[in-house]
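Quick one:
INPUT:
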């Protein structure tokens, strides 16, 4: 038997081959995440080729008492992959789309498969995997499941949790948990699948999944509309849902702060009308009939009622893509400068306007010069609120964060709608999560990962 006591990585090199145990320059691509806020200095990045190798890596890591941080596309926004001295396990060599089964309406995929590759594969069978967001060209199955990602189509299709039927997970002791169900109904005991979705790598490593596909809409109708107020936007949403029989695929709020930032950072994305206080992006997806007339009629009715002030209906696919690009530039526009206090809250739909109004009043007291940027998946009450404070002092940033979460929670909201907790919201979890819920989470973590080696320090604040 070889002596690996000198360099524990030798054992991993024997297992995976030296090329798949990356250090130094080779691992540098993971050193900083997409936001530039979070950093990783791993002992090494491991690149297993199959579930058996992932399990063997986890067992070896246990022997050497090393922490493990799974990584997908590294596009998460909350510091979920940040670490110092851990083994990062990249699933990039496990990117196969094993099967698309049209009659069952499922895709069976490995956890390293890239979201846009799944879109392309489904489309060949006239199906869609509806989850979509700006980072779809990089985000991988394990990452979007572990963050329970949302995106722009939740209003019609639900978030990732509702789009996943089955999972395979390597647990902290190296056992493989086979939950690769293809069933739409299964009440045989606790729902273990949902435990791992949204767990951000703290309970195990997802290695494969069964995803649920939907019929591909044949017709799309999209528009950008300036609306009189947020309540007017919600009335427009109701009109559209009724007229289109629930075919609203995206209903995105892009108010003045967002459109002004878009004009500054992306002047190439020409805006069809002058700045208004409130604007929404609309996309309808018709399974069997065109919906342009429905969209135009609903906009005309709303204009008649004084609720829509201006609108541009896409006349072709290029114009629709242009409108989508205006919305999907959000992440690149947001992370343009530091310091920021970014939040990702969810509110009941009819609570969004009150939340924004109260937050703006209280921010003006805390930091009169602070700027805000708001963009929202309004159809599901999810607001991305970014504050750019005038001072970069930890207590000041904390006071702003605390104010935002207080206003949100008091109005029945959640402190994280879709991005998750990672490192960025640990203090918020301590302050805002129900203490009994936190105790239950700690008990689950201790049962599944008693040595606290799976993405330690993330999601659950210290007790
Ligand atoms: C431009 C842009 C737009 C975005 N838009 C949206 C949006 O609209 N909606 C939304 O919800 N999110 C959005 N996001 C953030 C979103 O969370 C991520 O893009 C995506 O879900 C993460 O996938 P990833 O493969 O990059 O995961 P990573 O960033 O690599 O990882 C995310 C977390 O999952 C864990 N993890 C990764 N792989 C595994 C695995 N195999 N098993 C267990 N744990 C694992 C990691 O440890 C980490 O905690 C956006 C990000 C960007 C950059």
């Amino acid at each position: 038997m070889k002596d690996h006591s000198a360099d524990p990585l030798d054992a991993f090199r024997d297992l995976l081959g030296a090329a798949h145990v990356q250090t130094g320059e080779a691992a540098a691509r993971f050193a900083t995440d997409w936001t530039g806020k979070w950093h990783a200095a791993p002992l090494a990045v491991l690149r297993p080729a199959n579930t058996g190798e992932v399990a063997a890596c986890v067992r070896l890591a246990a022997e050497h008492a090393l922490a493990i941080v799974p990584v997908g596309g590294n596009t998460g926004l909350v510091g979920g992959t940040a670490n110092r001295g851990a083994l990062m396990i990249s699933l990039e060599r496990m990117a196969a789309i094993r099967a698309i089964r049209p009659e069952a309406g499922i895709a069976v995929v490995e956890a390293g498969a890239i979201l846009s590759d799944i879109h392309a594969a489904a489309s060949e069978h006239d199906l869609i995997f509806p989850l979509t967001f700006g980072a779809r060209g990089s985000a991988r199955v394990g990452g979007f499941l572990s963050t329970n990602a949302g995106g722009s189509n939740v209003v019609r299709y639900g978030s990732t949790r509702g789009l996943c039927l089955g999972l395979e997970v390597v647990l902290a002791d190296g056992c493989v948990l086979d939950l690769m169900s293809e069933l739409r109904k299964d009440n045989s005991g606790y729902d273990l699948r949902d435990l791992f979705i949204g767990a951000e790598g703290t309970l195990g490593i997802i290695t494969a999944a069964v995803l649920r596909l939907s019929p591909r809409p044949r017709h799309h109708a999209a528009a950008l509309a300036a609306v009189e107020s947020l309540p007017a936007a919600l009335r427009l949403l109701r009109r559209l849902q009724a007229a289109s029989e629930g075919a609203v695929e995206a209903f995105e709020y892009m108010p003045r702060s967002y459109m002004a930032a878009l004009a500054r950072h992306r002047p190439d994305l020409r805006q069809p009308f002058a700045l208004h206080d409130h604007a929404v992006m609309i996309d309808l997806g018709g399974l069997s009939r065109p919906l342009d007339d429905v969209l135009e009629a609903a906009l005309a009715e709303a204009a008649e009622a004084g609720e829509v002030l201006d609108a541009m209906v896409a006349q072709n696919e290029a114009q629709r893509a242009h409108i989508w690009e205006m919305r999907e530039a959000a992440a690149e526009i947001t992370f343009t400068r530091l310091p920021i206090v970014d939040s990702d809250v969810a509110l009941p739909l009819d609570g969004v306007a009150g939340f924004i109004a109260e937050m703006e009043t209280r921010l003006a007291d805390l930091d009169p010069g602070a700027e805000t940027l708001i963009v929202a998946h309004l159809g599901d009450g999810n607001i991305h609120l970014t504050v750019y404070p005038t001072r970069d002092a930890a207590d000041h940033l904390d006071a702003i964060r605390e104010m935002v979460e207080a206003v949100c929670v008091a109005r029945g909201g959640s402190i994280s709608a879709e991005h998750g907790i990672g490192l960025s919201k640990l203090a918020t979890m301590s302050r805002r999560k129900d203490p009994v819920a936190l105790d239950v989470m700690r008990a689950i973590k201790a049962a599944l990962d008693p040595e606290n080696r799976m993405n330690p320090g993330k999601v659950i604040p210290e007790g």
